[in-house]
Structure formats: C-alpha cells, structure tokens
C-alpha cells in the first residue's frame, strides 16, 4: 500500500506548500522486472511497482509564463525529491533523468544510483561490450563514468556547438575512423 501512501503524502505536501499541483495527477502500475538496471527490478515475482508522473504542461507561448511554470515544476520536483523519494525508494525512469550541471548534485545523483543499481557491474559490461563507447551519450557518461569523454561532450555541447566547427570535427573524425579501418563500428562514417 506504499503506492497509495505516497500519493496521500504527496497531496498533503502540495497543500502544505500551497503550490499548484500537476493536473491530472498520473499514477500507473507495472509488474516487476528481472533486469537489475530497471527501476522496477525485484527478485520477488509478485512485486508491483507504481509510477507517479510529475508533469506540468506549458500551454502558453509567452516566455515569462513558460518560465514561471518551469520554475514551479522544478520547485515541485526538488521538494518531492527531498521529502518523499528516499522514504518511498522512488527513482526516475532512466529516460527522465537530467544530468545536473552542479558538481555536488551530480555526485549526489551518482551516489543515489549506486545505492539502488549495480553500477559497477553495468560499467564493467559497458567496457567489455562497448569499449569504444559507441552506444554511450552525454547522459550516460556523466552518470556512470568515463570522465574525460563526458568532459569533451560537455565542452562540445556548451561551447563548440557551432555548426561549421561541429561539421568539420565530425568529418575529420570520420576520416580518421575510415583510414584506420573501423568504419564498420560507426555507421554514419562510411566513405562517400
């Protein structure tokens, strides 16, 4: 019954803080997963997991109003995170995780994920099965490791993302990959 207790406590928190709640409040249920990296992983076959959506719609095109709604969304998320997540073992879906820009927040996220998921085993499998990090991205690297590649991706995404520079770097990279004979690993770097 923790699923219903969570919703009750969430409603009380919303009322206490006098904040606009998301509407409608979305709650879904799912069976457990055998995958140890699933937020719904469990060794007990009859466990049920509940998902609660944190959604605030942006119906307006007015920048000031959109900013106010976005600020309320983050206030709501941070408040629920601080008050409820650990108490109810709540975790975001992987696709909903945003990499924090703040180093301390990133370290806290990494530590929290390590408590729940077999991060070392996951990184070992990544290193073994994807040594060139072809299946990685700027979300996985900071959360799970590969510090230097994540720094490079951060620099590219924050400073060097002008199209001509990115285009030039991409083509130089593809040229090197093709010269080294590794084009089969990177499908978008085939010779033309």
UniProtKB/TrEMBL annotation:
Query: What name is this protein filed under?
Result: D-arabinono-1,4-lactone oxidase C-terminal domain-containing protein
The species this protein was found in: Populus trichocarpa
Instruction: Identify the pathway.
Output: Cofactor biosynthesis; L-ascorbate biosynthesis
InterPro entries, alphabetized: ALO_C, FAD_lactone_oxidase-like
Instruction: List GO molecular-function terms, semicolon-separated.
Output: D-arabinono-1,4-lactone oxidase activity
> Pfam family of this protein, just one?
ALO
Q: Name any GO cellular component annotation.
A: membrane
Give GO terms for biological process: L-ascorbic acid biosynthetic process
Keyword list (alphabetical) reads: Oxidoreductase
Question: Does this entry carry the keyword Oxidoreductase?
Answer: yes
Q: Where is the D-arabinono-1,4-lactone oxidase C-terminal domain?
A: 5-141
């Amino acid at each position: 019954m923790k699923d219903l207790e969570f919703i009750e406590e969430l409603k009380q928190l919303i009322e206490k803080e006098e904040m606009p709640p998301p509407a409608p409040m979305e709650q879904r249920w799912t069976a457990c997963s055998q995958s140890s990296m699933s937020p719904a992983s469990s060794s007990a076959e009859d466990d049920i997991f509940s998902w609660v959506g944190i959604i605030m719609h942006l119906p307006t095109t007015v920048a000031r109003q959109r900013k106010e709604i976005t600020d309320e969304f983050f206030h709501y998320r941070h408040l629920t995170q601080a008050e409820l997540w650990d108490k109810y073992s709540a975790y975001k879906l992987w696709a909903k995780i945003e990499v924090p820009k703040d180093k301390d927040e990133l370290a806290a996220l990494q530590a929290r994920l390590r408590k729940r998921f077999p991060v070392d085993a996951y990184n070992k499998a990544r290193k073994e099965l994807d040594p060139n990090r072809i299946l990685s991205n700027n979300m996985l690297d900071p959360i799970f490791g590969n510090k230097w590649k994540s720094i490079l991706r951060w620099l590219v995404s924050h400073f060097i993302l002008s199209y001509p520079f990115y285009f030039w770097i991409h083509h130089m990279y593809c040229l090197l990959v093709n010269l080294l004979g590794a084009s089969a690993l990177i499908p978008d770097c085939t010779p033309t």
